[in-house]
Amino acid sequence: MLLGLAYRLLGSMWDAEDVVQEAWLRWQATDHAGIREPRAFLVTVVSRLALDQLRSARVKREAYTGPWLPEPVETAQAGPLDTAELRDTVSYATLHMMERLSPPERAVFVLREAFELPYDQIAEIVGSSVANARQMHHRASVRLSEGRDRFRPSSEEHAELLTTFMRAAGGGDLAALTELLHEDVVAYNDGGGKVRAALRPILGRDKVASFLLGLVARYDFKDVRMVEVNGLPAFATQVGGHRQLVMIGIRDGHISEIYGVLNPDKLAHVRLT
Question: In this structure, what are the phi and psi dihedrals at residue 181, rounded to the nearest 5 degrees?
Fold first, then answer.
């Protein structure tokens, strides 16, 4: 649970593991007799450590080569997913959208939505008043709801659209591919300066379709297979000798975001072979 919390706050399993390890060391050094609720204590410690790390990480992400995307993880590593809120807040599209939020807004949103903490406890964790915590949650909810469907597609519907997308792109079928893409689709590619990738997001149906078909014509895609990442299907492949993981976001029944992660440092928590 703590690892899932830290991952939602940071978008990086490497950083989440460091935070939880530090929280465990602090727990070991604490007089447990004075702690009535260990879970609340550990949630507070992990959240505050993650907030500190997130503030410093934002500077590094602004200097990142190309678009910065969250680190994908296999669903089994994401912690409990017993509720719709836990599943939604770990989905790749939501993690990416949470980059729009300030660190305190992100913490308030995750603690309230995914873990259902009361506002007084959330306010204490982020160092604000209860009223301000409520306002931050409202602002975050509004920002994350912009451009999203009220009703999320099921995992089966997601897989079906992803499979159709793979077939259209792999077959070079421009008409079929264009039909699948939302008018305002955006394609993000994260190579991190280590693997060749587009340095800016690609915007719009026509440009994204042309970009994808250009990749198919230029490179030999090998070992394409479906995997489950962040609670939803994705597909793994090799492009030009480099491993790649591709995830999609869906809006109005069409693909609205395409996330291509090629940076090898971000693929360590997904088995691609």
Answer: -90, 140
Q: Mind listing the pLDDT tens digit for each residue in 16-55?
A: 999 999 999 999 988 877 788 999 999 999 999 999 999 9
What total number of domains does the chain contain? 2
State pTM to two decimals.
0.93
The tokens of 56 are what? Answer: 């410093």
Place of tokens 């997601």: 158
Structure tokens of 202? 């690609």
Q: Could you say which DSSP state residue 70 is in? A: P
**Rounded CA separation 184/172 (Å):** 21
**Alpha-carbon distance 121 to 40, whole Å?**
9
- Structural domain boundaries enclosing 62: 2-145
CATH number at residue 65: 1.20.140
Q: What is the pLDDT of residues 87-99, one digit of tens each?
A: 999 999 999 999 9
Q: Give the burial string for 180-218 (b: 16+ CB within 10 Å, else e).
A: bbbeebbbbbbbbeebebbeeebeebeebbeebbebeee
Residues 121 and 196 grouped into a single domain: no
Q: How far is CA 167 from the centre of its chain?
A: 25
